[in-house]
Amino acid sequence: MTALFALATSLLWGLADFGGGVLTRRIPALSVVVVSQGIAAVVLGAIVVATGGWSEAGPRLWFAFAAGLVGPVALLSFYKALALGPMGVVSPLATLSVAVPVGVGLFLGERPGLTQAAGIAVAVTGVVLAGGPQLRGAGVQRQAILLTLVAALGFGTVFALIAEASTTVTGLFLALFVQRLTNVTVGGAALYAATRRGAPALPAGGFPWASLPALAFVGLADVAANGTYSVAAQHGPITVAAVLASLYPVVTALAARGFLSERLRAVQAAGAGLALVGTLLLATG
Asked: Does the keyword Disulfide bond apply (predicted)?
């Protein structure tokens, strides 16, 4: 059961990332974040009411609030990076977010084992190789790499914070609801500020009603992935669940190859693969 739910998590996260990146190519990234997360917040709010999650409210929700402040920055950076592409490089590099908990552990006095140290070295090598030729090319590609690393740092911070936000399943739903409510508030404020500076909030044709189902899918797939991961972690070894769930970049890369016909240079593909291997080593260490 653990493997099944963990693989479902990687599938949902991978498809959500792919959908967010594609949508950002025709809709402003901030609008994608606000609308998709807004839909997720509404659904989570209904779940919290149905499960009585309000009873889990307490000081731990401040971690969820902090995660909600960081989340929009990570999502915005990641969606913009996916829009710039190629997704086959961007998505695997974002899995370096797991390095954040390792860094926190080092700061608190922990020392990584041999496997974790090897994972860090492999992942850093992967970053360098994945940027390879494109770092010397167009500025757009340099921006994609930078945005991806910013997103990875943000995602890692969110994972560390949300892990401290609850101790029960119902509490997790409440924490995720608070997180996404904060996401929408912060993202909405940023969107308002951007429009005041003249940036478009919507495509030239107005609100993309035709894209609303896709926006809903992005937000709801992310919520569902969090749920399936919780089930996987509760019914088996967390290490197994984490490793299998971390395979979501493969789904994003395959979706980009299948639907967008993306092709990677050999050195970039090798770098992206090394980054993914490094991430798996960190997760299993």
From this structure: no
